[in-house]
Amino acid sequence: MSTSSSYQPQWSLLLQAKAFRIAASLGIGTQNYLSSKGSFESRVEWIDSILGIKQAKNAIRLDIYNKPSSTSTSSTDRPNARACEGASDLRPGLIIFHGGGFVIGSGSDDILFAQQSIDQLGAVAIGVSYRLAPEHPFPIPVEDCVSAIIHTYNHAEKYGIDKDKLIVAGFSAGGNLALSSHHVLSQLCTTRTTAAAATTASENGYVIPDGMEIPKIKGLILIYPSLDWTISREEKTSNLCDPNHALPQSMTRLFDLSYFPKELRYDRADYRLSPGIAPDELVEKLPPVCMTVCEYDMLRAEGMDFVDRLQKMGKDVDWNEIKGEKHGWDKPPPLYPKDSVGREYKRIFEVAKKWLE
């Protein structure tokens, strides 16, 4: 997010990214295993990316989490199971976009969050592994996330999900992707409404295949999100009471140069990159929002600016600040999450319950 014109070869960025990915995978994987006692039921599915010029088959991984069953085969795995069980068995759906600066992480990072959504909402949770930078810079991760939402909504019954009760959540970079995805969907919806043809092209050239419905989202959960790329890293760090709380510069530099390399010719105010400063007509279309910020996070200020904007527009927004904590406070270290993590997740899903009533 720095406005610096510094340059680093992609091969160098990729080597650094792979090293960070290995370290992050070990840390988060260990925490998730210990905290869940290794007893979490999930299955994996690969789906297509259907938007943009980098469309691809089986490009996006979905980690699908359900209530534990007494048999080895979950109900959503059995042929025609949903038709047999009926619509009354459909549950709320939660799509989760992981954090990691658009460079590291996977859809299995937020197992504890998924577990709590199952416990509190009875949800089916889906963690999305969108394609990562530097191999896949902006706007590919946004397009992957929109594709995942469209796929889930249009195949909701297959997953045991009530499509009218679909919530989208994101951590850090994933919060950016959750909000920007809704903006893209709103643009697609506007274009389809005014278009004569069934196949719709948005201002970014996105086309929804004929027969696909544009999703309606019940609410957005944004956890320490990145919302404004027009503000430099230097300015974001200077907003902290103690700059030592900021993420390491080596990490943020890797994230920024990987996701938004200087050769890209996009405006930093593009609503897909800086969704917190999107035009009012897109913000007005947002569903209820639940926000979490951390007191010692360089992203806190832009998060609070967005909360303030929503409140002034009369939008439904609920927020909380985690006092004394830095960015990613719910991720390792330590190996076991802090008590505040469980409390905040519980608060978030209490808010989400109201959306579903």
UniProtKB/TrEMBL annotation:
Keyword set, alphabetical order:
Hydrolase
**Source domain of life:** Eukaryota
Q: Which SUPFAM superfamilies did the record assign?
A: alpha/beta-Hydrolases (SSF53474)
The Swiss-Prot or TrEMBL record annotates one GO molecular function as:
hydrolase activity
Q: Where is the Alpha/beta hydrolase fold-3 domain?
A: 94-329
| Keyword Hydrolase tagged | yes
Which InterPro entries does this entry report, sorted A to Z?
Answer: AB_hydrolase_3, AB_hydrolase_fold, GDXG_lipolytic_enzyme
- Report what the protein is called: Alpha/beta hydrolase fold-3 domain-containing protein
